[in-house]
Design goal:
This protein has helices at 17-22, 44-56, 103-118, 133-141, 192-200, and strands spanning 3-6, 10-14, 61-67, 72-82, 87-94, 123-129, 145-153, 174-177, 180-191. It has 201 residues and is of the alpha+beta class.
Length: 201
């Protein structure tokens, strides 16, 4: 196991094949708005493909997150890596059994040190659904700044958000364009300079 970064509650490793198998045992989000974050049931062949795609694609990198009890609790993914411009996009997914424990913020703070110091990157971008307040707080604590809010295609196109009374309060964040379900997203970023400035405060 290759450890690339450490937080106070977590440590981050290069993604390992057995970690992909462990994702099959993760819990499920009960919130229907977060259903697309549930890791799908995969065959062994599909898991092998997922691992190789994340591990050996030049424009992607993936890292496992473990707590201090050595439990695999989540992963951090980089996509659309532009190696010349030193910029990429962040994705982060945690086992629902381990959310609201401070692991996400802790892991991301540790990872940012590795991202800027070791990978020599200049900027990290992300987008987060406007309704996802918990994730927004995590990113804000880590120093990410809002760039813009705009509608993007929602991950779960099967969610019937306008037909469910239990989701009525969230309908304001969605709209339909033809048959495509769109949701409001906050586009955020952190630069190397802003990260270092954050460490001094």
């Amino acid at each position: 196991m290759i450890i690339v970064a450490r937080g106070k509650l977590t440590y981050i490793t290069e993604i390992e094949r057995q970690q992909v198998d462990a994702m099959q045992l993760w819990g499920k989000h009960e919130d229907p708005l977060l259903g697309s974050y549930n890791f799908p049931v995969m065959s062994e062949l599909q898991r092998e493909y997922w691992y190789r795609n994340k591990k050996y694609t030049l424009s992607k990198k993936c890292f496992g997150v473990c707590n201090l009890e050595n439990q695999f609790v989540g992963y951090i993914a980089l996509r659309n890596i532009k190696w010349i411009r030193r910029i990429s996009e962040l994705g982060i997914v945690f086992d629902p059994n381990y959310i609201n424990k401070g692991y996400g913020t802790d892991a991301l703070k540790g990872f940012l040190e590795y991202y800027f110091d070791n990978m020599k990157m200049r900027q990290l971008n992300l987008k987060v659904a406007v309704f996802n307040k918990r994730a927004q707080k995590c990113y804000e604590k880590c120093g990410f700044q809002l760039q813009e809010i705009k509608y993007d295609e929602f991950e779960d196109q099967n969610l019937e958000v306008f037909d469910r009374e239990d989701l009525e309060e969230y309908q304001q964040f969605f709209k339909k364009e033809g048959t495509i379900l769109l949701s409001q997203y906050k586009h955020m970023c952190i630069t190397k300079e802003a990260h270092y400035a954050e460490q001094l405060t």
